TrEMBL record:
It comes from uncultured Exiguobacterium sp. This is Glyco_hydro_31. Keywords: Glycosidase, Hydrolase. GO terms for molecular function: hydrolase activity, hydrolyzing O-glycosyl compounds. It holds the Pfam family Glyco_hydro_31_2nd.
Length: 135
């Protein structure tokens, strides 16, 4: 990322990651993800939990990350891109294999997983995964 900025952080403290910034996204894809994909990474697990703020009011960073990464993957590799990601609001079912996020280790939590999986289809998810290991 710093290569795009003459080899140094923008303000001496690093680059804030804002996926609504087109220049930052281009650097992220070209400098970070593409070399890893060239080495054999087939898809990404987007586990964004860093808040809902972006410089574009109302734009959730997870939603735009999902959008950008699926489009980029589709363009680079032909066909349809694939990511594993959390629910990011209405319309997010069109991009990822969804997953539940971390679960609590309990029998009650385990008993709830079938219902949770079935209701994921209510919002259009065709594929759903669980982090059943928990915390």
């Amino acid at each position: 990322m710093a290569r795009r900025d003459g080899g140094r952080p923008v303000d001496g403290h690093g680059h804030p990651f804002d996926p609504s910034d087109p220049e930052l996204v281009a650097a992220y894809l070209e400098e970070v993800l593409h070399p890893l994909e060239d080495d054999g990474v087939d898809f990404w697990w987007i586990d964004w939990q860093q808040g809902t703020h972006s410089r574009t009011p109302g734009l959730d960073p997870l939603w735009i990350l999902n959008h950008v990464q699926v489009l980029d993957s589709s363009r680079r590799h032909g066909g349809r891109g694939l990511i594993l990601s959390r629910y990011a609001g209405p319309g997010s079912h069109r991009y990822p294999v969804g997953f539940s996020g971390d679960t609590v280790v309990s029998w009650a939590s385990l008993a709830f997983q079938p219902e949770f999986t079935a209701t994921a289809s209510n919002i259009g998810y065709g594929w759903w995964s669980h982090d059943i290991g928990g915390h």
